[in-house]
Specification:
Layout (H helix, E strand, L loop, with lengths): L4 H6 L8 E8 L5 E8 L4 H12 L4 H9 E2 L9 H5 L11 H16 L16
Antiparallel strand pairs: 1-2, 2-3
Helix pairs in contact: 2-3
């Protein structure tokens, strides 16, 4: 197969537009917060973000969140340092509950349409 733009498009090699997701989490006061976020399906930006985080010995989870969470146009809204708290020590790191909600949304977007392997059949030993 010759690698061309048409072949790449037909094979689903491009990630497409960000996916809108609703998330919710409880803040430190116990109040439930709901928000709409946009998650970029894993692709070039995620690969580069993960690579840069690894090369800088930065936090890989923060790099993944920063590479995945974006605005409607696909532009990042966080840097890894925003998430870890290094960008503004007075503000601190991203809330733990919010971090989990974002990671769940990232997983859901990237698992869309993927088949999961079913559990292998078990053998009770009885014939």
């Amino acid at each position: 197969m010759k690698l061309t733009m048409d072949v790449l498009k037909e094979s689903g090699a491009f990630t497409g537009r960000p996916v809108e997701k609703e998330i919710s989490w409880k803040n430190k006061l116990g109040k439930k917060i709901k928000a709409t976020v946009f998650i970029r399906p894993e692709g070039y930006q995620t690969a580069v973000g993960n690579l840069l985080a690894h090369n800088a010995r930065a936090d890989g989870v923060a790099g993944r969140i920063a590479a995945s969470v974006c605005d409607e146009e696909g532009k990042p809204i966080f840097t890894p340092k925003d998430i870890t708290g290094e960008a503004d020590p007075g503000r601190g790191a991203l809330d733990g509950e919010l971090t989990i909600a974002l990671l769940v949304a990232i997983k859901e977007v990237n698992d869309l349409g993927k088949m999961t392997a079913s559990a292998p059949p078990t053998n009770s030993g009885a014939n």
